[in-house]
Specification:
Elements: H1 2-15, H2 24-61, H3 66-98, H4 103-122
Helix pairs in contact: 1-3, 2-3
This protein binds magnesium ion (MG).
Magnesium ion binds next to helix 2 and helix 3.
Length: 123
């Protein structure tokens, strides 16, 4: 993850796609713009899921076994949905780099926190 974060930092610098860190107004505009771009990519994941369900539905209607139809449909969207997840990750990495967050560290901490919360809830 640290490598990925470093790669994204250099990549966004090279492309001049970093979140602006100049003035408050520029940062605010840039953060909001990038937030919109991130949510657009999240919506593109939904689009791929919808595509998979449509493909599976058509196959099932034509008489295919639902599990086989869905396995086939998932394979059909796999390449495109992988690109959308990559787009989402790129924007997330841009945000964490802007906030100088160590995402690997915060990920493990948050997962432990969630696990602890679940344990406490059912203890
Ligand atoms: Mg995309």
């Amino acid at each position: 993850m640290k490598e990925l974060q470093q790669f994204a930092k250099q990549y966004h610098q090279e492309m001049n796609w970093e979140i602006s860190n100049e003035t408050y107004e520029q940062s605010k505009a840039s953060l909001l713009q990038n937030y919109m771009l991130l949510t657009t990519e999240v919506a593109e994941v939904a689009e791929e899921l919808r595509k998979a369900f449509t493909i599976a539905h058509k196959k099932i209607e034509a008489g295919a076994d639902p599990e086989e139809a869905f396995t086939w449909a998932k394979q059909e969207v796999k390449e495109d949905i992988s690109k959308e997840f990559a787009d989402c990750l790129a924007y997330m990495l841009k945000f964490v780099n802007y906030f100088e967050i160590d995402l690997e560290d915060s990920f493990y901490k948050k997962m432990a926190e969630v696990k602890q919360r679940k344990h406490n809830k059912y203890a």
